[in-house]
């Protein structure tokens, strides 16, 4: 049921700064680096007037002049500020490392923000586009590292999978067909919702049937329901029910902005009036008042992230009694597979359910009906091209600071569509092109090294008592590391298995809306099919092309899809400090989640239990308050341009993980490089190898954001803004301060 937030979320914010000038072209820079390679001469820099003096490594290291190293050096040089030699890294390392990135990366009209991970993701999308727009690869076209260990009969299954994936992609690309159909398929779904509500309400004033219908399409009408591992019994699947993650606006706090709410109300009325011109607009106007009440009753984002708040196990009858109008027992049984019996449920927001009963009793029936229709529109509007839904599309863009009529390139949207609906088939073809056995081996080495170093940190933590430390070290040893791609549940290397997995997803090359609905229904059914079975610990929560990673507390596992194991974060062909600095810190970050403000509640077997001694818990709380205070001082401009503070409590787990992950990875690299010395990169002799480790880490977080996106993220994102993740983490790193000879060596906050 519980899964820790991943390392990052799509379009997480980063600070915008004005660009610098006097930049040479990338072609000139590469030419300069190639000249260095040809003459084996070092570029000599003068001693900077501000900051630190470059210091020589204790050992001599030669220069790496391979194309991979020249490429990596060029990328770093172009991301650095043009004045990087004059800037003091101890003062603003983010500007030093990322000033050049901002020079050469402008946000497109359709982007709320972007960072290095966005570029990586879009590079992967380009690769996937080439796969999807090319014919099925025959035997001779498979790469050296290929999952194709297939018999003749199996090749047809692989090709059929490819054809299904391509049909979904082609249907999405056919904008003329989508436009010619207009809103018709959406209205058909809305009519079903209207009829379901009318039929149930006329008999018993029930909302159960319409909430159930929405849930089968993956839409949270009044409550969010689902299944997952039981936190206190992680091998058992349990049902959960709680407040929807969103009611319309990005967060409950945005409903306090009266101007925004009024704009939202006008758009809602405009869209629904276009879809239902004969209906009274008063019911449409009441939708937003209902949303406001629901949002006010819902838990804060901070409470949603806190296992001590959301884990409330109850017997099904006890849970149903909280909100009788929902008919919760019937609602949940309506989603469960036949033959399963739900006896226990995790009520993630009891107070919300209590308030929900009061709110429903006070809401007119026509407003409720309109609300359910509106939820379906918000979920499915992106699958139609019609004037009726255009105002909402524009509103969503403006809400994120984008141009009103902007949209990503169609092929990008369609790659994402295929990834969301047929992701494991897409993953199979991505792996063949973008991953290798060598990459998997290197990734395993990095993570194993970090486990070793983190265990040392636990043993050295004087504030932990011996018994807690012993159990914590055992938890590190027990952490399962999943790297690259799944070979079970499903085995993406086995085409017949994939064919069976997606057998019920009916896809047509000319029915985009129907395809999307089939994919959504399949995802919901797949989640609920786990009920009555042991937890499948072989499942992955992210598809392989995803540029992200996560820690799962009940599973005590860290997961790294092949998508994040790409240049410039990960590369087997460049000096190891680059991969340890970026990917290694990601790996250490996820491992650190096992001991952050949430992960610490789960023992070495993934059980939610109090396994820390009272003295250790008190010492932990005292130490992490430093992180809360530190990050609460970071701000972004608010809606009225007044400073809007980062929520240090909401972002606590991620900030702890950033600090712990960076330190563990640095120590892992130092130990590994003592055994196997690294080479230097050309043109970067201004930095020592230790300093390059921190440059590589920070390079990963270089980015830009729009004001409105940054505001939304403050309320919803458990991660601090990207620029704060550089500045805060460097301030908390003794290794950084020593490597750059900062005057103050003591970290601002330190846990491990």
From TrEMBL:
Report what the protein is called.
Answer: Zincin
Family of the protein in this entry: Belongs to the peptidase M13 family.
The UniProt keywords, alphabetically, are: Hydrolase, Metal-binding, Metalloprotease, Protease, Zinc
InterPro entries assigned to the protein according to its UniProt record, in alphabetical order: MetalloPept_cat_dom_sf, Peptidase_M13, Peptidase_M13_C, Peptidase_M13_dom_2, Peptidase_M13_N
Q: Where is the Peptidase M13 N-terminal domain?
A: 89-486
Q: Domain of life here?
A: Eukaryota
**GO terms, molecular function:** metal ion binding; metalloendopeptidase activity
Question: GO terms for biological process?
Answer: protein processing
One GO CC term on file: plasma membrane
**Which co-factors does it depend on?**
Zn(2+)
Q: Where is the Peptidase M13 C-terminal domain?
A: 548-747
Q: Does the keyword Zinc apply?
A: yes
